[in-house]
Write a structure and sequence with these properties.
By secondary structure, the protein is an alpha/beta fold. It has two domains: 121 residues, P-loop containing nucleotide triphosphate hydrolases (Rossmann fold, 3-Layer(aba) Sandwich); 49 residues, no CATH class. The protein contains nine helices and nine strands. Helix 4 crosses helix 5 and helix 5 runs parallel beside helix 6.
Length: 211
């Protein structure tokens, strides 16, 4: 996640965008390729409202002044795509629900033409209703053709939202599987044992033979 977002140079390997090898040395490089990251903390300025957060550092200026009206209009449009029921655009984001705060963070990313979103534990510490909101947000993004790297320890999130699942163990890739071809138990076995699915399956077969 850190390597794709430009926060940490990769130790080895190669990153491809549109089939071409690229170098991502910092977050600015990642943004240039349309890669945006939404961290678990969301990195929102709690004392500012939604438009101020969406355009933080990339404010719209008119005649040398902040164009608050243009930023609010754009924010209403982009968040309306994600959460049509959200109305509290002028309240500090500290007062928003977890699902609404996620919508602001996602809106900030896609307002500037993100093609790929890296989402770190997007439902962590949320209640059932807010978790459902965030899952709906992710489904909307998928429908719009935005690629998503979903980092999650929640197996329900993984199976509800993903198409391909990569299991990592102590910082190393264990395996990559197609969700349609595996069960939740298969993935849990990979997580617990830290082994690819074919080795997990072999061990199960050996155990059955022994018993």
């Amino acid at each position: 996640m850190r390597s794709l977002s430009g926060a940490r140079p990769p130790d080895h390997g190669q990153i491809y965008v549109d089939g071409k090898a690229v170098s991502i040395g910092n977050p600015r490089d990642a943004k240039a390729y349309g890669i945006e990251t939404i961290y678990q903390t969301l990195a929102l300025a709690d004392n500012l409202d939604a438009p101020s957060n969406v355009f933080l550092g990339r404010e719209i200026m008119s005649r040398g002044q902040l164009d608050d009206s243009a930023m609010e209009d754009a924010t209403r449009k982009v968040i309306g795509r994600l959460n049509p029921n959200m109305k509290n655009f002028k309240s500090p984001v500290l007062r928003l629900s977890g699902g609404q705060r996620q919508a602001v963070a996602i809106g900030r990313a896609i307002q500037f033409n993100a093609r790929v979103l890296i989402m770190d534990e997007p439902t962590a510490a949320l209640g059932p209703a807010e978790t459902a909101q965030v899952r709906d947000l992710i489904r909307r993004l998928k429908q719009e053709g935005i690629g998503i790297f979903l980092v999650s320890h929640d197996i329900h999130d993984v199976f509800d939202l993903s198409e391909r699942i990569a299991v990592m163990y102590h910082g190393r890739l264990v395996g990559l599987v197609d969700k349609a071809e595996v069960s939740a138990d298969d993935v849990l076995s990979m997580i617990i044992l830290g082994k690819p699915l074919e080795k997990v399956t072999d061990e199960k077969e050996l155990e059955q033979l022994r018993t």
